[in-house]
Design goal:
The structure holds 2 protein chains of 2 kinds. By secondary structure, chain A is mainly beta. Helices cover 0% and strands 56% of the residues of chain A. In chain A, strand 4 and strand 5 form a beta hairpin. Chain B is mostly beta strands. The chains are: A mainly beta, B mainly beta.
């Protein structure tokens, strides 16, 4: 079983709704990531938090808003999404320390459907 | 040209066969190489990671890196139907701040 826990596993929302995806890890990792994955495509990087600070934002639309309340938690707030935002949203973590090998540990993902 | 090229397949082999999955890359700065297995509708699971050129073995899996040719491989011995999944290669540079670049993934099917 993965040590990165994502909730909810499935989410259906309308274009006017506000919802949040949550991610939690207790491996002491200091870098956490949000990826978006469409069917039959590789994961696409959205955001990276390193030591609880946003370090990478891959020009993601503002309707996606990340938040890192502490070193174990990562949220993705969703508002006014479009049907094309329907995808599997993956959270991942890595040690984030010097000499880090870059092994990303992924959660099971949250499957989002926007109606 | 993409930084990482991976044949999307699908690749179908009989149970017990040796499977070879490959990726090529163009960025000589890549230093760390990973293979992930992803079952349908699940998150990717880390299978292997390597740093230097050469081979690394873990059970039925062997990862091979040839930096001079910018070519990495994953071999699966005695393949099982449970190995049917999409396999993603991934790589990044030395700095912990460098991005991880994924291949497009190869869909593998093992026929019983």
């Amino acid at each position: 079983d993965t040590e990165v826990t994502q909730t909810p596993k499935h989410l259906v929302m309308g274009m006017t709704n506000k919802k949040s995806l949550k991610c939690e890890q207790h491996m002491g990792h200091r870098a956490m990531y949000w990826y978006k994955q469409k069917a039959k495509k590789p994961p696409e990087l959205m955001f990276v938090y390193s030591y609880e600070k946003l370090s990478i934002n891959e020009s993601v639309p503002s309707r996606f808003s990340p938040e890192c309340p502490n070193s174990s938690l990562l949220n993705l707030h969703l508002h006014a999404l479009q049907p094309e935002d329907s995808a599997l949203y993956l959270c991942a973590s890595t040690t984030g320390s010097r000499g880090n090998t870059g092994e990303l540990f992924f959660g099971e993902g949250s499957r989002l459907t926007v109606l | 040209q993409k930084e990482v090229e991976q044949d999307p397949g699908p690749l179908s082999v009989p149970e017990g066969a040796i499977v070879s999955l490959n990726c090529t890359y163009s960025n000589s700065a890549f230093q760390y190489f990973m293979w992930y297995r992803q079952y349908s509708r699940k998150g990717p699971e880390l299978l292997m990671y390597t740093y230097s050129s050469g081979n690394k073995e873990d059970g039925r899996f062997t990862a091979q890196v040839d930096k001079s040719s910018k070519y990495i491989s994953l071999f699966i011995r005695d393949s099982q139907p449970s190995d049917s999944a999409t396999y993603l290669c991934a790589m990044r540079g030395y700095s912990s701040a460098s991005k991880i670049i994924f291949g497009s993934g190869t869909r593998l099917s093992i026929r019983p």
